[in-house]
Amino acid sequence: MDRNRSHGESIEQHSIDYVPPEERHGKPWHLFTVWFSSNVQITAFVTGVLAVTLGLDLPWAVATILIGNLVGAVFMAYHSIQGPRLGVPQMIQSRAQFGFLGTLLPVVIVLCMYMGFGIEGGVITGQAFANWAHISFTWSVIIQGAVPAVIAIVGYKVIHLSTRVVSVVSGLLFLALTIALAGHLPEHLPSGPAPSFGTVLLVISIFVSWQLTWAPYVSDYSRYLPEDTPSRTTFLWTYAGSALGSSWVMILGAFAATISAEAVGDDAIGMLSQQIPALSSAILLAIVIGIVPAGVYGYYGMYLTAISAFSAKGHGSATPLVRAVFIVVSAALTIAATLMASGHILSTVENITLFLLYLLVPWTAINLTDYYVVRCGHYDVGELFRPRGEYGLVNWPAVVVYLVAIAAQIPFISSSLYTGPLVDYLGGADISWIVGLLVATVLYLAYARRTRKVAQPVGARASAPGSHAPLSVD
Question: What's the confidence (pLDDT) of residue 254?
Answer without folding.
Answer: 94
